[in-house]
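Let us practice reading a record.
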Amino acid sequence: MSAVESRAQHGWSAWLPKSVQPYVEAAPLAAFFLGLSSGFPFALIGATLTTRLAQDGITKSAVTAFALTFLAYNFKFLWAPLVDNFKLPFIGRFGQRRSWLWCISVLVILAVTFLGVADPNQALLTVAIAAITLGIAGATLDIIIDAYRIELLEPHQLGAGSGMSQYGWRIGSAATGALALLMASSFGWSVGYITCSVFAMPAILVGVFMGEPKRHLEPVAIKGVLNVLVEYFSPLLEFVKRKGAWVLLFFILIHKVGDTLANLTLRLLFNDLGFSNEEIAFYDVGFGFVAFLAGIFVGGILYTRMGLKHAVLISLILMAVSNFGFAALALVGHTNWGMAAVIGFENFASGIGGVTVVAYMSALCNLRFTATQYALLSALASIAGRFLTGTMAGGLIEAMGYVNFYLLTTVIAFPGVFLFWYMIRSGLADVSLGSAARKK
């Protein structure tokens, strides 16, 4: 058979370079669209809300306190067992994953509308309640999307699927942030927020076209209080029984502290340095997005050539070093070239981590408890940084200045690097993997 005949037999994707072909398979493409919907609620209660509050003259301490709304993402593992085990009435006949996906997507749309119509100048408490509501709805959507993605992907697709998911997440987040800023400049923040609710549609459509994930293990009927408690704690018990589980959980807890502290305060830095909405949209959202895409591409190469473990280690080092760039920008002041450089490097490093770290955490899951275990891991990954941002970041910035604050976040990032290096040397990075890393 000739090369042309072989390509014709395997469809249009066979004409693409071999390094690109895994990304255009059905499951990784679905992961991309799921990522689009996963990223937009996070953006609306993160950088977008920070900009909105800062422009309305809300104090720095109050603005950074809104980072506590992200705690819903950190504690989502508490209700993730419901997603794994509870079958929704009526709509549940379409499948455990799809029914939850559609139901929560609608709730997210309603929560976005609630936050959009709330006015910070008239009722800051109402804005806080609306942000918390969207945080809970968005975190629940994350639970479902992560479980759907992991169960849809075969083990050999975890790298490509994680990369495509991060492509989607960043596109959804960036497009949401840019659209909200531009719509707010012309029509006000309420219109900006409500318009962004359209990003819930990709996840809904994935459920329609892809169906229920083939690797999903249906829950058994649970009867009796004791059995309910057993099922609730089973995901955690299964995980902690693995060799080195506590070391692994500690690594997950600390590896993103510095990165989270830095990223959740960037819009305050940009506002105080005098960057306009248009400059933020172009450099932080637009240019940063291009750098993130490049990072995902390089991350895929590192994943293939170095293996998962060493690719994760490289990404951790790069993400730690990227915080130093923000200290440099704070030192030199308002400069578009400086903003482009530090945003570009930070997003490049995050793109690499989006392929490697997400693939590693996905591989840690047991397919019976996909939603709960990934929710636990992803929640632990940023809980410390978000808690410190909401309780201390504003005060630290006011006390020590931006330069010293970002230098501190750089130092805080390195313990996670050293711990993962130890996990590689001791073999714990391998023995802790779950059934999601094995072909069913």
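A brief commentary: Confidence is low (pLDDT under 50) at residues 1-9.
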